[in-house]
Specification:
The protein is mostly helical. It has 3 helices and 2 strands, in the order ααββα. The protein is elongated and about 60 Å long. The N and C termini lie far apart (55 Å). 14% of the residues are buried.
């Protein structure tokens, strides 16, 4: 399995999850801004860490497109985070909200 195939599978799963959670009225503008910030940070810090030889990528497992020292596949992960974090926030907020409403009903409030 290449880095690209793994990244595409996870990115598609995260995108589908975000679409299901947010439905039509999602925070897509905020997600886009978050994605841009995370991609910019990834471009800077991944290049620094790769240059410092903290980690590397086997060239035979990459698509061959690089931004500095970082392969293009590495930029899928900030996109996954930008999709998943807001969606998980909504899901956990809904669960917490439903739980507090149920507890309030049981307590007679």
């Amino acid at each position: 399995m290449t880095y690209l195939s793994l990244a595409v599978v996870v990115l598609l799963a995260a995108g589908l999850f975000a679409l299901v959670v947010h439905r039509r009225r999602g925070p897509w503008a905020r997600v886009a801004v978050l994605a841009l910030v995370l991609v910019a940070l990834t471009a800077v810090f991944d290049n620094v860490m790769i240059a410092a030889d903290l980690f590397g990528y086997a060239a035979e497992h990459t698509a061959g497109v690089w931004i500095g020292l970082a392969p293009i596949e590495d930029f899928a992960w900030p996109l996954v985070a930008a999709l998943l974090v807001p969606a998980l926030w909504v899901v956990t907020g809904r669960v917490a909200g439903a739980r507090s409403r149920r507890e309030a009903t049981e307590d007679g409030r």
